[in-house]
Amino acid sequence: xxxxxxxxxxxxxxxxxxxxxxxxxxxxxxxxxxxxxxxxxxxxxxxxxxxxxxxxxxxxxxxxxxxxxxxxxxxxxxxxxxxxxxxxxxxxxxxxxxxxxxxxxxxxxxxxxxxxxxxxxxxxxxxxxxxxxxxxxxxxxxxxxxxxxxxxxxxxxxxxxxxxxxxxxxxxxxxxxxxxxxxxxxxxxxxxxxxxxxxxxxxxxxxxxxxxxxxxxxxxxxxxxxxxxx
Length: 230
Fold this sequence. Notes:
The protein is built from 2 helices and 9 strands. By secondary structure, it is mainly beta. The protein has a domain at 82-228: Sandwich (Jelly Rolls). Strands 1, 2, 3, 4, 5, 6, 7, 8 and 9 form a 9-stranded mixed β-sheet that branches. Strand 5 (162-170) and strand 6 (175-179) form a beta hairpin. The longest helix is centred in the first third of the chain and has 9 residues, at 68-76.
């Protein structure tokens, strides 16, 4: 899901959609949305344990009901900095406007997709179902510096779209962090960062003729044995 934070004193959230002008481009399809909104209650975690020896320590904290609804909300609440959040141990995720692999993905995006890291989890495995981002040179591996121009040597504008996967290694032994072009297509990628589990997507506003910008879709599974991470 996409996380939207509501401030304490706000009773409404405004979502703006910026779309192409249909009056000047009447052949474009009519834009529509289907949105499900779920309110998640934030609460003080210590408030759940108002019993036994911890009761004395938590008397000054606001009471929080320990119910199935509270457990559900705690499970679903995304960590700060995550635009998308997947709390389940396995599932699938895709770029915005993936459109069943036809794309194109949206320009000028910078956001993180996060995954729940339980105490027994040491990493995450991504299995690519589809991956096709822009690239700037068809003679490279589409990894790391191939995906982002060094500002010291920057010349004419070139594509810098990429998916960042920390501490990534493919089943073929290829190591990198920034993936662009088709570098992650048909790949199994293990990510074993010491901190949170996440990927980070960045897109610019450049479009190059004959270079597809279809986006990506991955299946994922968290890992609890990173010695045999492949």
